[in-house]
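Possible regression after last week's pipeline update?

I re-ran a chain I had predicted before the update to compare outputs. Posting the input and the new output here so someone can diff against the archived version. Not blocking, just want to make sure nothing changed silently.
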Amino acid sequence: MKNYIIAVDGPAGSGKSTISKIVASRLNFTYLDTGAMYRMITYYVIKNKIDIENKKSVENMLENIKLDIVKDNFFVNGKDVSKEIRGVEVTQMVSQVASIKEVRTKLVDLQREISKGKKVILDGRDIGTVVFPNANLKIFLNASSEERANRRLKEFLEKGIEQSYEEVLEDIIKRDKMDSEREESPLKKAEDAVEIDTSTLTIEGVSEKIIDLILND
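New output (post-update):
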């Protein structure tokens, strides 16, 4: 099995990245964190005060930005921004940047190129619908807004980021709306995706479900 693509989609905080990493590690797949790629561009936009309403500015930015992923470290033009891309400012703006057509085109091409000839698990919003509509297996992870807000709040607290539950929940709901209503590659479940509600399941439980689906495919 030289080439096998697993597409994992779902809203923010549904457990996509954590679970995809576990599955990749267990089955010796390459894990590609597509959400981090959009966060890297968002970081660059904020840092360089790019006018994302100006198409020319966006095109120039995409020509000048170089993304690199080495294991769990993320580099923008040679600088390790692994911590910065998980900050509140990037989190609040990433959906807006991810809705830009030129940004999505660049990253979808890059995701497809990286995945050629490999066993890969990718997570995001449009992996099974746009990036790899012919993926071998499609998973759609979901959870209640409240549960996802609790998870995100816990992540922030572990990183020393101060935010209230109400602020995190409001941001989750706002991102859901923006992701699902955007014109370019909106968040939605592929018709042939297996949906798993992670609200009351453990990370281990969800990982095992996905691994069983792969091994029985």
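Follow-up from reviewer: compared with the archived run. Residues 4 and 119 are 5 Å apart (CA to CA). Marking as no regression found.
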